[in-house]
Amino acid sequence: MDTANAYKIHIKGLVQGVGFRPFIFRLATEQRLNGWVVNRNDGVMIKVQAEYGEVERFISLLSTRAPAAASIRSIQFM
Asked: What confidence tens digit (pLDDT) does each residue in 21-75 have?
């Protein structure tokens, strides 16, 4: 049985124009996660389908491996 759910991750800060969406794509591909990412006026919105623990690990990696030019102010996980 598949226990994957859909989760939204809203990231605020300097995340546009710094290669953040391609970074998200590479990281999600590396972690074998499916979903999408879109720029918004208030940051970046990610929707990912995965198990809860996989999403937690993904968020941790987002914080520690973000592009050098990015500056994450907050990550909201829904």
From this structure: 999 999 999 999 999 999 999 999 999 999 999 999 999 999 999 999 999 999 9
Residue with tokens 């720029």: 39
DSSP states along 9-60:
EEEEEE-SSSSHHHHHHHHHHHTT-EEEEEEETTEEEEEEEE-HHHHHHHHH
pTM: 0.90
CB 8 within 8 Å of CB 45: yes
Active site residues: 21, 39
